[in-house]
């Protein structure tokens, strides 16, 4: 460790003091003297606790808690208690200070927040469920004190801002975990700016080439965008000024990650992204006139520019469950460019910027009684209470679906309004009303017409649930419900029923085995499970109870044949399952991909979910029973694998592919003309000298879509082929199909 000179130490002390002062700059005038004393006391303790610690970058560790506190104070807008807790969030984990010390020197409230933060601190992944369990603890703290999660999000944001000092594998792991867990949580907390920054920073490390390409194009077009926004806004300003409305207009660039999502989901280029221009009109208003002014401004801007009715969003009449309120309109600006305009009051804007913290700030003054944010936190508490530890990973998958889900609004026959994720069924609505209503649901009348349980609801539907005391949850219900509440309630009911039948089945099996002169001990039970090819003993008991396993079956087992084969099945080597033969998974050269820093040559197969070819950046994933699977870094499953199973990730790279061939599929799109198919086949087979295995072209009203399968040696060869195909007259799009 480098020995610091006196001069260097003094320089660091000065920098620490400056950072502390800067952290309080925007909130200092709102804090009471007691608040300032509390924050200073927390700062002094944190400086002492971290005095000998440094970050990976070599900077004093205290820089980190100061920056986290700055995010809490300025970007989220929390008060003195949260700022103090943010300053001390790593003290208990990383120093000699204990939770009791914090409680004695401060109070139980701050100690409880720090305890929650310590419990959900990053763990060393040693088994599959640890990261999942970490996430569950995160949600438990949310149900107790929302400030814990807000500070944790701030902590993750600063870690992402300083991630460049970490090893590449750590960068990938942390970035994947961020996009998998923390960005969705920030979204659900209403922290849209922080959510966008977390997504952008994650993309920067998971797909650096994509990030750099979009960023460079945004920088290159910055001045043109600014000039366009000024021109677009001028006419709006003139009209608003005439009406005497007090307002400000802000330009808002699209985030890099949102542009990337549109490129991927819509299959378009950067230049073709629908609306890269956006502005916000933020107006002054008292509570009484908020809605009136919003619609007045909407009327003014749509008189100036034509709007797209399909892109209109009214989040003022019916706010999002995060508390977000705003009117969104997409207008056709000069030169045929679409511009998104967001209209909101200063109060709405603060809630949009600072999320749940601002929501609670305004809650009392604006008499927000039935808060959707409070309802959501209550739902989390209920879900967690019904959660069983063995299902943690599945619980997270279900829960995450509801973090980003778009909302629909559904009415009861009496006019009560319920918010559900888009795609929710009648059964989801039944469980949203009450567990008993869901458990006994037979069907639903939607807008007066009878529909089955699986019917997908639409915004504005009026739904009457039909129940029966004879109805009970069924396993196939899990195939179509969308909400985590419905899934957890159905599983709880099914598990309770299964446990009941299993207990009854065990008693029946014991009686039958005694009758057959057999003792139902552990050895016999294992043999029975193996003989009847059951997954667990519980499944065995249930099938005995139902009669699926008959007396004759048990008698055959007891006579000897079953027992011997059962034991033999347990001790003999299990044959490897016959895998579907895939040409791409058989390698004549085992050194195509090497693993780890030592570049070991290990057996592997290529993942079918992303179809990597030589030249793609890849990683290895150690599966449970299928060896190492090689995935592209940009694989759709990459984020989840790195976030939950970082300890099973293998560093990998291509080293030799000169004699191996890979099939890949290209999608083609363009304007149809005579000779188009001939030009494509001539280019691929003759000019590029590629082996084309198949081609299919479909034409409709002058537009064609096609698919060709070609054999290539490496990615560069494929890129060259795609570039050449793009130059064919009438060709508008050439895309590689990953799966």
Structural class: alpha+beta
Mean pLDDT: 81
What is the share of helical residues? 40-55%
Instruction: Tell me the total number of β-strands.
Output: 19
The residue ranges in which pLDDT falls below 50 over 5 or more consecutive positions are 122-130, 364-370, 388-393, 561-568, 576-591
Secondary structure tally, helices: 29
Q: For the largest beta sheet, what order do the strands appear in spatially?
A: 1-2-5-4-3
Gyration radius, in Å? 30 Å
Give the amount of beta strand, in percent.
15-25%
Globally, the shape reads: globular
Q: Termini separation (Å)?
A: 49 Å
| Major beta-sheet overview | 5 strands, mixed
Characterize the structure shown.
The protein is an alpha+beta fold and 739 residues long. Helix content is 50%, strand content 15%. The protein is built from 29 helices and 19 strands. The strands form 5 sheets. A 5-stranded mixed β-sheet has the order 1-2-5-4-3. A hairpin with a 5-residue loop joins β6 (407-411) and β7. α1 packs parallel to α3 and α12 (208-220) crosses α14. The chain is globular. The model is unreliable at 122-130, 364-370, 388-393, 561-568 and 576-591 (pLDDT under 50).
Note the main attributes of this structure:
739 residues, globular, five-stranded mixed β-sheet, 15% strand, 19 strands, 29 helices, alpha+beta
What secondary-structure arrangement, pairings included, does this model have?
Layout lengths: L5 H19 L8 H17 L13 H14 L3 H8 L3 H4 L4 H7 L2 H12 L9 H16 L1 H16 L6 H21 L3 H15 L1 H13 L1 H21 L4 E5 L4 H11 L10 E7 L6 H15 L8 E2 L12 E6 L5 E8 H9 L1 H11 L5 H14 L6 H13 L2 E5 L5 E5 L4 H8 L1 H5 L1 E6 L2 E3 L11 E5 L16 H32 L6 H10 L5 H10 L4 H8 L2 H11 L21 E3 L8 E3 L11 E5 L5 E5 L5 H7 L4 E6 L7 E10 L4 H12 L3 E10 L2 E10 L2 H12 L4 E7 L2
Parallel strand pairs: 2-5, 12-14
Antiparallel strand pairs: 1-2, 3-4, 4-5, 6-7, 8-9, 8-10, 11-15, 13-14, 13-15, 16-18, 16-19, 17-18
Helix pairs in contact: 1-3, 2-4, 3-4, 3-9, 4-7, 6-7, 7-9, 8-9, 8-18, 9-10, 9-11, 10-11, 10-27, 11-12, 12-14, 13-15, 16-17, 22-24, 23-26
């Amino acid at each position: 460790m480098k020995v610091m000179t006196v001069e260097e130490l003094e320089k660091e002390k000065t920098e620490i003091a400056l950072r502390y002062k800067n952290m309080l700059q925007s909130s200092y005038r709102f804090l009471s003297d007691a608040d300032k004393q509390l924050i200073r006391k927390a700062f002094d303790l944190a400086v002492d606790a971290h005095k000998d610690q440094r970050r990976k970058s070599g900077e004093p560790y205290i820089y980190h808690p100061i920056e986290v506190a700055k995010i809490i104070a300025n970007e989220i807008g929390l008060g003195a208690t949260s700022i103090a807790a943010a300053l001390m969030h790593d003290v208990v984990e990383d120093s000699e200070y204990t939770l009791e010390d914090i409680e004695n020197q401060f109070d139980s409230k701050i100690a409880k927040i720090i305890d929650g933060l310590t419990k959900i601190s990053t763990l060393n992944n040693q088994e599959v469920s640890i990261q999942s369990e970490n996430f569950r603890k995160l949600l438990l703290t949310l149900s107790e004190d929302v400030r814990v999660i807000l500070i944790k999000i701030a902590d993750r944001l600063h870690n992402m801002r300083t991630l460049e000092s970490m090893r590449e594998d750590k960068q990938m792991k942390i970035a994947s975990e961020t996009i998998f867990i923390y960005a969705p949580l920030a979204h659900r907390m209403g922290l849209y700016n922080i959510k966008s920054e977390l997504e952008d920073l994650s993309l920067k490390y998971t797909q650096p080439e994509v990030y750099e390409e979009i960023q460079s194009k945004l920088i290159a077009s910055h001045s043109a965008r600014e000039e366009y926004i000024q021109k677009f806004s001028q006419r709006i300003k003139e009209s608003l000024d005439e009406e005497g409305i007090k307002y400000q207009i802000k330009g808002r660039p699209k985030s890099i990650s949102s542009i990337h999502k549109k490129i991927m989901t819509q299959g378009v280029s950067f230049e073709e992204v629908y609306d890269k221009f956006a502005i916000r009109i933020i107006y002054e208003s008292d509570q009484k006139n908020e809605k009136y002014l919003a619609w007045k401004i909407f009327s003014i801007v749509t008189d100036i520019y034509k709007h797209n009715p399909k892109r209109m969003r009214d989040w003022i009449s019916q706010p999002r469950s995060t508390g977000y309120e705003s009117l969104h309109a997409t207008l056709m600006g000069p030169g045929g460019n679409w511009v998104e305009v967001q209209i909101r009051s200063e109060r709405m804007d603060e809630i949009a910027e600072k999320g749940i913290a601002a929501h609670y700030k305004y809650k009392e003054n604006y008499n927000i009684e039935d808060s959707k944010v409070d309802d959501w936190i209550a739902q989390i508490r209920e879900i967690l209470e019904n959660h069983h530890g063995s299902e943690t990973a599945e619980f997270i998958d279900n829960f995450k679906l509801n973090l980003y889900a778009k909302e629909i609004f559904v009415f009861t026959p009496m006019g009560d309004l319920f918010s559900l994720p888009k795609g929710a069924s009648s059964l989801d609505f039944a469980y949203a009303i009450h567990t008993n209503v869901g458990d006994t649901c037979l069907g639903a009348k939607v807008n007066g017409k009878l529909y089955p349980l699986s019917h997908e609801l639409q915004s504005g539907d009026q739904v009457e649930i039909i129940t029966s005391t004879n109805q009970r949850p069924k396993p196939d219900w899990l195939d179509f419900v969308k909400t985590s509440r419905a899934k957890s309630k159905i599983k709880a009911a099914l598990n309770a029923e299964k446990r009941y039948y299993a207990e009854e089945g065990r008693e029946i099996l014991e009686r039958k085995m005694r009758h057959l002169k057999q003792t139902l001990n552990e050895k016999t039970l294992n043999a029975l499970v193996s003989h009847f090819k059951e997954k667990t003993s519980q499944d065995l008991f249930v099938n005995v109870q139902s009669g699926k396993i008959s007396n004759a079956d048990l008698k055959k087992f007891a006579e000897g044949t079953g027992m011997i084969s059962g034991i033999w099945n347990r001790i003999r080597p299990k044959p490897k399952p016959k895998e579907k033969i895939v040409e791409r998974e058989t390698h004549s050269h085992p050194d195509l991909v090497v693993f780890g820093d030592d570049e070991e040559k290990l057996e592997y197969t290529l993942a079918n979910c992303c179809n990597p070819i030589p030249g793609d950046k890849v990683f290895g994933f150690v599966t449970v029973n299928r060896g190492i699977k090689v995935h592209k870094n940009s694989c759709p499953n990459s984020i989840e694998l790195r976030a939950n199973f970082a300890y099973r990730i293998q560093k990998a790279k291509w080293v030799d592919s000169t004699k191996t061939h890979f099939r890949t599929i290209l999608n083609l799109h363009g304007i149809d003309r005579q000779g188009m198919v001939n030009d494509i086949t001539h280019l691929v087979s003759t000019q590029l000298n590629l082996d084309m295995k198949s081609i299919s072209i479909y034409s409709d009203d002058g537009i064609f879509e096609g698919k060709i399968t070609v054999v290539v040696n490496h990615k560069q060869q494929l890129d060259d082929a795609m570039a050449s195909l793009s130059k064919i007259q009438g060709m508008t799009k050439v895309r590689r199909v990953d799966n």
